[in-house]
Amino acid sequence: MRMFGADSVNFVSTSTLELVGWFNFLYSSVHFANGILDRRTDFLLFHSNMAAFRTAVFSFGLFRCTARVLRSGNCSRRQLLAGLPAVIRNNWISLCTGAGLCAIPFTQKQGEGLSHEALVRRASSLVTDSANTFLSQTTLALVDSLTQYVKAAHMLITLQKRYVASVTKLNPMEEKAVWEVIIRQRAEVTDRRNECKRFESSWKSAVDLSLLAVEAAYSAGADHAAVTARTGLQVAQSHVKEVQQRSLEADRLLVESSAERAERTAHLAAAPAEEEDVPEAYLRED
User: Fold this and answer.
1) What is the pTM for the complete model shown?
2) For residues 143 and 149, what is the distance between their CA atoms, to the nearest angstrom?
3) Domain with CATH 1.20.58.70 in the chain
4) According to its UniProt record, which protein family does this protein belong to (predicted)?
5) To which H or E segment does residue 69 belong?
6) Are 163 and 264 in contact (CB under 8 A)?
7) Domain 116-285, CATH
8) pLDDT tens digits, residue range 197-233?
9) What is the C-alpha to C-alpha distance for residues 23 and 218, in angstroms, rounded to an integer?
10) pLDDT tens for residues 59-114?
């Protein structure tokens, strides 16, 4: 049998490792590019594609290290063979992974995680999450606006009651100052009421959207997402209903206070005329 020289062994070993390394790198890179460019489920396959790319990079690094050792012209065959285990020992993970990639076709599983049903369920879960976020923000805005409206209404009620109680003790300048405060408070109540109407419209749209998201999640089989969305919807409706009850009560008290103030003002306006009629009638009788 003919024995090959050191240069022949070096050339054959280097060529073989070059072929394996380049094939491993190109094969993994092609599958990585296909996973990024061809599929429409990038957000689901990103981690697996990055793992394949890292494997290709590690394998290419092993190829470079091994080729550098084998190409050193100053080393004998014994030195090359003695240095090769150290390279393999330092890069055994890349070597094993690269060999596995060369032996087994790198294909993506079309199992449960990538089936159409699973993708639809995940998409419906994303829809319910977005609907819950919209509902939470509109609920917070509506509750806060209703709370501020109730405070403004109670402040106006207090001012009107104080005015009615002390109207007979006020001089014209003081009465004018009190009326200016009442008018400003009325304007604030009106602004708060309009703000509540705007946020209530947005909140109703969020409720309708949440109901549609819950129905879509149920039909897609995402029962957990549907139950979570429905629970959040019920909590939001309960919270808003509680604040709306306080708002309605404030409206009722405001109407009563305004009626009392109007009645008191009319009574005070008619009182001087009645006092003046008494002397005139008395003089006619004389």
Assistant:
1) 0.56
2) 10
3) 116-285
4) Belongs to the Smac/DIABLO protein family.
5) helix 42-70
6) no
7) 1.20.58.70
8) 999 999 999 999 999 999 999 999 999 999 999 999 9
9) 47
10) 555 556 555 555 555 555 555 555 555 655 555 555 555 544 444 444 444 445 57
